[in-house]
Amino acid sequence: MALKDKLFGLIDNSLLSAFNKKPEKPVDPSKARKPLLAGIEKTKKQFEEGRTKVPHRWWTVNNGVVAFEAKVGGATFEINGKPINYIPSERFPEFLASMKAAVDAGEFDGEIANHGKGSAKVSAPKGRGRGGNDDPNHPKNANPAAWAKMKPGERIQAGLAYKNSKKG
Length: 168
Known about the structure:
Layout: H1 2-9, H2 16-20, H3 29-49, E1 59-62, E2 65-68, E3 71-72, E4 75-76, E5 85-88, H4 92-104, H5 109-114, H6 139-142, H7 144-149, H8 152-167
Antiparallel strand pairs: 1-2, 2-5, 3-4
């Protein structure tokens, strides 16, 4: 029995998270800046040429004001804590030049490194997907205790009956 105790004393099952943790790959800052710098250059060229119908562009102009929304890797890149920033159109080329200089100087390296690592705000439309009905008359909300005891098939039937009762 003493051998088992010694054996069990060596086991530490709290190490599961350390075991499953993926090692962090070092990020080359100059490589990480490339998509943002390329987007700034593309935006500058589009703006100078007056190309306002380009798909996936980062900017829109209206009433002499440019709404600028940078996207990196398909996700919005926040600048100054905002997803969209507004710049007077006559100062937009100056803004792009300043932003390019700041990115080149590494002033956005922290934001670039953390981009897409949980800081994005995600929301789902109400009433869509799994369990998104906020109507107080829905069976899930009207009687939560009964809903919790139902089997999945019963929940589907109750939800469909509620949905059909709403139609007519």
